[in-house]
Amino acid sequence: MVKVQIWGSLRSMTDDCEFVEVEASTFKGVLDALVRAHPALKEQIDAGVSMGIDGLIVRESWFYPVKPDSEVVLMPLMQGG
Amino acid sequence: MALDEYQKRDFKVIGKRVSRPDGIDKVTGRALYGADFYAPGMLVGKVLRSPHAHAKINSIDTSAAAKLPGVKAIVTGNDWPGHAAGEALMVQENNLAMGKALFDGHGVAAVAATSPDVADAALKLIKVDYELLPHVTDIAEAVKPGSPIVTEGVRGKKVPEDMSDNCTGYCAFGHGDLEAGFAKADLILERTFKTSSTHQGYIEPHACLATFGPDGRADLFCCTQGHYYIRQLCAEILGLDQSSIRVTASEIGGGFGGKTTAFIEPIAMLLSQKAGRPVKMVMTRDEVFKATGPTVASMSDIKIGMTSDGKITAAEALIRYEGGAWHNDTIYPGAQSAFACYDLEAVMARGVNVLTNRPKQAAYRAPGAPQSIYAVESVIDEMCQQLGLDPIDTRLKNAAKKGTKSSYGPTYDEIGLIPLLEAAKAHPHYSAPLGKNQGRGFSCGFWFNFGGETSVTLGINFDGTATLVEGNPDIGGSRASMSMMAAEELGIPYEKVRTVIADTASLGHNEVSHGSRVTFAVGLATIKAARAAIKEMCRRAAAVWGIDEDAVVWEDGFAKPAGPNAGDHEPMSLAEIAKNSPRTGGPISGHHEVTAEGAGVSFGVHLCDLEVDPETGATEVKRYTVFQDAGKAIHPDYVEGQMQGGAVQGIGWALNEEYIYGSDGRLQNAGFLDYRIPVASDLPKIDTVILEIPNPGHPYGVRGVGETGIVPPLAALSNAVSHAIGKRMFELPMSPPRILAAIKDA
Q1: Considering just the CA atoms, what is the radius of gyration of chain A in Å?
Q2: Which terminus of chain A, N or C, has less C-beta within 10 A?
Q3: B438 exposed, middle or buried (CB, 10 Å; 0-12, 13-18, 19+)?
């Protein structure tokens, strides 16, 4: 299981849980599992999210690997100027 | 992408200050900017803009204008085909209003005519029946319940109840027990700060030429930071296949984030489609200020607890960002960045997006970070002042480092903040004496950086030179940097590589030039494309020698047998392999496409000395030093240029720049005479100190450097002014009248 940290304002969609545990081995797998566990997250995930995986900000690569002991943090889609 | 990309090596080309490939074209006028494109039968496109901040458009009568000789097409918001959704719909509505004018300068109709004079005359003949609506342009007013509502029905779901329906978004990031953290503090400070909207101040106005053929295919020439995105927007808005539009990016006279979206291109395409002739549009400076995308304005509440020896025990922020009449997500990076420089046990940053009757915000270097970090760094400085602590030592005590759980979630890998702080502390600038009415300010800064979708092709020419084709407009010296990286890999001189920017029909998709991504991501793809070409060249050499390709290595521009067992063969140069390539299998190219990840976050710290004239309130920056981690500086001149440019734009933001609106909701200073950006004579030499802490996600260790430099100046300047006048400043810009008022209040 991968433990995913949810940012503060999204926690109302995860029953106020800061962490959600999901079965996944990739970036996309984590997103799909999150939506299955908490369908209210779908709107934000469809709008775009990035993910902190073991300290690295992964912007959108579906197949980026996630290990069971990875630190995984859901983040808004990165933007820049 | 993994974090094992970086390999330490000795460079032959990287790190040198080679000649810039665009220099001669730019100083001789040969370079083609957005307004430099012409086509046979070309028409001139112009836009009629709303003189009202907020008004319902009851009707637009274009009949008289249409009868004017020379007028070939007129369009309004009713002519949008109705295909757009999401961001494209907002862009479409921002280009030409759909039922309501939402800000002073909002486009309501556009004309294509045979000359500028005819177009101007036609605009005057268009009759718009406006029904004026209450407006709001000030963020503090817009947040209050009872404020005029910009757009009904878009209130954000999680917005606090005591805020108005103009609040369209809410976010929160953080961890830990704030209450327990504040209980441990010896000093708790709560302060509120305001910043104004500022413009990126690029010298080149937006310009484009759209040519729509009778076969439904179009060519668009424009100045932009991302021509693939412009193609995507135009295709979505006009309901076209992306393959039917070819966009060519011109040279760019500054962008800084402001040219990451479309303000006239969809209009020019629509006019050209309707007229059946090419249409050229060039914004005036007045239009650039009124109808493109300035930064968000902000109002930030900061609360920090600190022990008497300088340890931060808890930190909290509520930032409110105003980004015009449409929702935007700049509060996300604003809130995420606010405390990113620090290792905190208890932290929470919340953000609220607020609508106003102002132009739709666009990105500006590190969007959202300068405003929130300005507020945080100002409070930390005041706490150091009250507790008698050294500002850099206090930051060192709290600085984020490898293993720190960042305020926005992920745990940092290798980062450069502590080495930067140590470099600043040891720098002669920090201990230099100050004169009368002078103050010294210090601030940290942070930005995320990212990679994104990237395609490049590297062709090996028959004469032993190479041509690199990439798809990102060169906004900061990327052609030089890409040529250097290709030359480094291939083992040939820099002068033998030419990098060109492809149009959208010539190369796969490329993300916009933003997010400090280009040197990192396009550089990474360039290196890998070069390695692909090298692999093929080794294969060709192996075939000539009749040995296995694995028995060939590439060194300094030559294919060589890997060892004695591979046979006794003279090294074969790139030029020799290229010359023989038609007979050894055909042309040789390397290609690489990737969604680059692993950009690595970026930190910078700034030191500023300035002097305030107590009689006039005028401020003169006397000395300024930027310290920034570049990972690896591919071309140090360009890295320093980014650091200096960011500092100068931040100085302008801190001291003079602001959008000033009258009570009628109209912008009062839409020009460079009244909107004061710093010029060379206003500034000292900006000194730079580049640190190189390699980014493990890039083969050479590169981190993006384009954005971080604008983050620290706001607080560095504010802290310096506060020390110089003995009165804490809480609002930007610190224009002379505002400083005089503060001095009189002291």
Answers
A1: 11
A2: N
A3: middle
- In a domain, residue A53? The reply is yes
| B158/A75 touch (CB, cutoff 8 Å), yes or no | no
Calculate the CA dihedral of residues A36, A42, A44, A49 and round it to 10 degrees: 60
- Contacts for A76 with CB less than 8 Å, ≥ 6 apart: A7, A48, A49, A50, B171, B329, B332, B333, B336
Distance (Å) from the alpha carbon of A73 to chain B's nearest alpha carbon: 6
Alpha carbon distances (Å) from B180 to A11, B176, B345, B534, B643:
21, 9, 10, 59, 39
* Chain A, window 12-31: residues with a beta carbon less than 8 angstroms from a chain B beta carbon: 12, 18
Residues listed for chain A = 81
pLDDT at position B715: 98
SS3 B178: helix
Q: What ipTM, to 2 d.p.?
A: 0.95
B409 near A CB under 8 A: yes
pLDDT tier for residue B1 given thresholds of 50, 70 and 90: very low
Mutate to test the interface with B, among A13, A20, A57 (most CBs of B within 10 A): A57
* Eight-class DSSP state of B242: G
Mutate to test the interface with A, among B200, B337, B450, B649 (most CBs of A within 10 A): B450
Q: Is A59 a member of any domain?
A: yes
Residue located via tokens 């060169």: B474
Can you tell me the distance from the alpha carbon of B88 to that of B389, in angstroms, rounded to the nearest whole number?
50
Task: Tell which B residues from 336 to 355 touch A, by Cβ distance under 8 Å.
Answer: 336, 348, 350
Pairing type for strands B279-282 and B43-49 reads parallel
CATH number at residue A53: 3.10.20.30
Domain count, chain A: 1
CA distances from B378 to B301, B624, B713 (A): 12, 18, 11
The verdict on residue A81 lying in a domain is no
Best to test chain A binding among B332, B406, B524, B705 (most A CBs inside 10 Å): B332
Q: CB neighbours of A71 closer than 8 A, spacing ≥ 6?
A: A5, A52, A53, A54, A55, B410, B411
Residues in A closer than 8 angstroms to B336, CB to CB, are: 75-76
Residue of B nearest to A66 (CA): B2
Q: Is the pLDDT of residue B2 over 60?
A: no
In a domain, A36, yes or no: yes
The answer to whether B608 and B647 are in contact (CB under 8 A) is no
Task: Pick the residue from chain B with its C-alpha nearest to A48.
Answer: B329
Please report the sign of the dihedral spanned by the C-alpha atoms of residue B255, residue B173, residue B315, residue B161: positive
Tens of pLDDT, residues B55-94? 999 999 999 999 999 999 999 999 999 999 999 999 999 9
The tokens of B703 are what? 């981190």
Tell if the CB–CB gap between B333 and A61 is shorter than 8 Å: no
- Domains of chain B from N-terminus onward: 23-31+451-596 (3.30.365.10), 34-134+204-291 (3.90.1170.50), 413-445+600-746 (3.30.365.10)
Q: Which residues pair with B173 in a beta bridge?
A: B349
Structure tokens at B187: 């000093």
Domain span including residue A68: 2-76
Average pLDDT, chain B: 97
Please tell me which of the candidates A5, A12, A64 has its beta carbon nearest to residue B409: A5
In DSSP terms, which residues pair with B441 in a beta bridge? B608
User: Among all residues of chain A, which has the CA nearest to that of B414?
Assistant: A55
Residue B546 dihedral angles phi and psi, to the nearest 5°: 70, 35
> Does residue B492 contact residue B559 with C-beta atoms inside 8 Å?
no
